[in-house]
Structures are given as C-alpha cells and as structure tokens.
Specification:
By secondary structure, the protein is an alpha+beta fold. It is built from four helices and 15 strands. The protein is globular, with a radius of gyration of 21 Å. The relative contact order is 0.13.
C-alpha cells in the first residue's frame, strides 16, 4: 500500500528538526498548491537556494524519509521559468514510493500549518510547540495537534459476493462503502451506520483488516470486512452514490492500483484472502 516504503523509514518526530541541506525537498506554496519541477516533483533544496532568495528562517522543517528532509516555505506558489504549479493530491503518483509517501505526508503537515495560524478560542497567533508536534497560543494556553480525521472502509460480503459502490462524481471507479467516524463512535459503530445510511443494509461479524494513513484527505483509514445480515433489496443513498452492486469474486471489475486500502481489500477478497 501507499505507506509501504520499506526499507525506507518515515521519520515524523518533531525533535529531528535540522537546517536544510543538499538533497532535501521543499514545498513552496499554500492552500495545497505548490511549486513543482517540470517533471512533477518537488524542487530540491539546492535548486530552491539557487532560483529563489528565501532566508533560512523561512524553511520550516516538516519530516524526513531516512535522512532526506522535507521543508515548507509559507508563500503563495507562483510560476517561474523551469517550474510549474501543481496540486499536492498528485503526490500519490510520484516515484519511487518513498518519495510519493514522504511528499504527501509532508504536504499534509504543511496544510495543517497553513490552515491553523490563529487560536480558534481567542484569535491570537499560534506558534510551534517546543517539545512536541503542536501549535500553542501564548495568550490562552490552547494547544492543537495535527489534524487526522478517522474514517472507515468496509467490504460488505454475502458468501462469495462483495458489495461495491460508485460515487456520483469525482472518483469514477468502483469502491467500497466508506465514511468518517462521528463523535462518540467506535469504528465498528461507524461501519454499521455507514452501511445502513448508504445502502440500507445491516451487517454482523465485523472484522478488522488493516489501516492506512491517506494524506490527500488528511485521513487515517481503518478497513473492515462485515457479513450481510439479511439478503434484502439495496436502498441506495443517492446524495453521494450513483450505484451499489453485488459482484462474485470472478466478476469484480478491474480497478485502481493496490496502493490504496480500498483496492488492497478488494484484491484480498477476490483472491480468497479475506
């Protein structure tokens, strides 16, 4: 999956901050729009130092993959000869895998810094915590931590069949039922609620499959399989979904790459591994 970058290791500890050096990468931009090379990669520190005039204090350390660090420059992304403007959502397609995952996770952190400049309680400016990854308000003492939104993906099964859905817009391939966890819910509660809301079915034997940090949506996904209670007609929720259909293992349509938890789970069911 996307996060499987071994033997490389993501080092996201806040106490690993250091000054940038050649070989590091730099995110220049705000609102999830950044400067990219013409090849679609983040520019290296040495290229940025050559082509821009940022001072050392503008390089905000984010994280590292092995010994290669990622930094954020808090300015609007603007076009420049030899560079282009791109969206951070494209980082899942970068190769090698460690660069894609490192870039996407760094962009997740940069988005959090970008969207949390002032205290939501008293409105005063926030500054970085000194001992942990946090933003702190000196006026009222409010402390906030990186935004990670928990959500579930569930493969609803009925014997040799898997329930697959299609969204109304955006992602145009089949997927599994998914949804964000609400306040006060367990992941299992979310599974039951989302299945009922989206297709009007009840499930049991809810069993954990795996998890995935998904930086493009700032989400931590928890994947489950669950068995159908009763073989009744689907009642499709049409605000978000265009279709819901049962597929036997040999009928499951071709889909996305296996870097996503969704298609890893679909592949596991297809191959009788779940």
């Amino acid at each position: 999956m996307f996060q499987d970058i071994a033997p490389h290791v993501l080092n996201n500890q806040n106490d690993k901050r250091r000054a940038p050096r050649n070989g590091d990468y730099v995110l220049i931009g705000r609102n999830q729009q950044v400067v990219l090379t013409m090849a679609g990669n983040l520019p290296s520190y040495e290229a940025v130092a050559k082509d821009w005039a940022f001072n050392g204090e503008q390089y905000r350390y984010l994280l590292a993959t092995d010994d290669i660090a990622f930094y954020w420059i808090d300015v609007d992304a603007t076009e420049k000869a030899g560079y282009q403007i791109g969206a951070t959502r494209s980082f899942r397609n970068l190769t090698p895998a460690w660069l894609g995952f490192g870039s996407a996770t760094a962009a997740h952190l940069a988005w959090w810094y970008d969207t949390n400049r002032f205290c939501g309680h008293c409105g005063q400016p926030l500054h970085e915590g000194t001992t942990e990854r946090s933003l702190v308000c000196d006026t009222c003492g409010q402390t906030i931590y990186p935004t990670i939104m928990p959500a579930i993906i569930v493969g609803v099964t009925h014997g040799d069949k898997l329930l697959m859905t299609k969204f109304l817009g955006g992602y145009d391939r089949y997927a599994l039922i998914s949804g964000y966890t609400e306040i006060g819910e367990t992941f299992e509660d979310t599974v039951r609620r989302e299945v009922m809301e989206e297709v009007g079915l009840q499930v049991h034997n809810i069993r954990y499959y795996g998890s995935q940090p998904w930086a493009p949506s700032h989400t931590l996904l928890a994947g489950y399989f669950a068995d159908l209670d009763k073989d009744i007609a689907i009642e499709l929720e049409t605000d978000e979904l265009a279709k819901a259909q049962w597929f036997t293992r040999d009928q499951i349509p071709a889909g996305d790459t296996t870097d996503s938890l969704t298609w890893t789970m679909i592949g596991a069911f297809r191959n009788k591994q779940a």
